Inverse folding.
């Protein structure tokens, strides 16, 4: 089985999927941080394809960057002022070829993540 990476973003303040939230994926090797791809969540809060598909999977350290501030402003949960949460980075390791699922539960003042299935 080849590994791959997915996510799901839920807006816990509104009780719905976070549609239209931009996500960037980076791979880290030592101090070098390389952009892999950018995707946007669909109306189910997921990306239409894996963030890191099977043919491109490599074990290592990665970082998902969720552009929460843009989403919160677009959804009417934040005004043009300073946000408590703007960019949410989640750095994690993938050690084996498996399905990694890194969801984000988001509100204007808190977030949570875990390794899902």
């Amino acid at each position: 089985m080849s590994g791959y990476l997915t996510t799901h973003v839920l807006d816990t303040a509104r009780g719905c999927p976070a549609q239209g939230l931009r996500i960037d994926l980076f791979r880290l090797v030592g101090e070098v941080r390389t952009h892999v791809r950018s995707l946007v969540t669909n109306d189910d809060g997921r990306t239409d394809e894996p963030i890191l598909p099977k043919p491109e999977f490599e074990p290592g350290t990665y970082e998902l960057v969720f552009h929460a501030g843009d989403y919160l402003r677009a959804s009417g949960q934040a005004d043009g002022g300073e946000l408590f949460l703007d960019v949410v980075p989640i750095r994690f390791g993938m050690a084996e070829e498996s399905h990694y699922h890194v969801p984000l539960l988001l509100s204007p003042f808190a977030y949570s993540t875990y390794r899902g299935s």
In short: DSSP finds one helix and ten strands in the chain. The chain has a mean pLDDT of 95.
